Each structure stands twice: as C-alpha cells, then as structure tokens.
C-alpha cells in the first residue's frame, strides 16, 4: 500500500491536467527534485494508483455533436441478463461509459453520437432491441461547465 501524501496528491493532480508533462516540469511544479519525482511516479504506477495515461479528444472535431446520459432499467436482475447487457454495451461504439448503479435503474450510460438521428438509431436499433431492457430514460447534455474526465 502506497502512502498518498500531499506530494503524491500534487503529482497526481498535475498528471491529471497534463499526462505528457516532462518529469523536469513536473518536479518543478510539485517542488521536488527530478529524481524524487520520478521515483514517486514510478511507485504510483507500480502500486496501480496510476493505471494509465489517456488522450483527451475534442468530440466536435471527431464528429460527435450529441451526448446523453441514459438511465437503463432491466427486465430481470439475474447475473446472466446483466452480463448479456454489459457485453452488448461493450460492443457498441456509441456507449463511451457503462456503469452498474444502485437505485431505481441498473445502469447509467454515457452515449455519444454524431447527431440526434444517429442517437435515435442507437436508441431504437441497438438499445431498444435488447431483450434485457425494460426502461430507458435519456438526459441530453446541453453543456458541461465542469468535466474532469481524462
């Protein structure tokens, strides 16, 4: 178990902002020597605290003009039904996130599509065609004043 002290938190915060920051620049920002910073980053990686580095893309430049969160309720709560639903979501390019949640529904999805007609095709032809699905509630994203997903 690695100690997540103030320096490690600062390192993680800076890496979350810019995963491509050089070790030298990172060391300057967290007020450590480059060698101490590198050791800490490597320890955070080895401990699994840092699981990877990602590219943050501009959805509009990739042709994504429609984003929605969907609350999905299943007809049955068996493990096999959940696994079948999760496999279908993993295979769907429109589904960017799939979370099994507590509450009145079983899943929360983040879906990206080119536009409303593209989303409608996903909603009708993919999601609506799954035998496990009982309810779908769509929440269209109108803006994202804060989004810290990396």
* Strand percent estimate: 15-25%
Strand order, main sheet: write it out.
Answer: 2-3-1-4
Main sheet summary: 4 strands, antiparallel
Reported by name, the CATH topology of the largest domain is Alpha-Beta Plaits
Radius of gyration: 20 Å
What is the count of DSSP helices, taking H or I runs of 4+ residues?
5
**Structure classification:** alpha+beta
Mean pLDDT: 96
Following the backbone from N to C, one meets helices and strands in this order, namely: HHHEHEEHE
User: Would you identify the CATH H-level superfamily of the largest domain?
Assistant: Lrp/AsnC effector binding domain/regulation of amino acid metabolism (RAM) domain
Roughly how much helix do the residues carry, as a percent range? 25-40%
CATH architecture of the largest domain: 2-Layer Sandwich
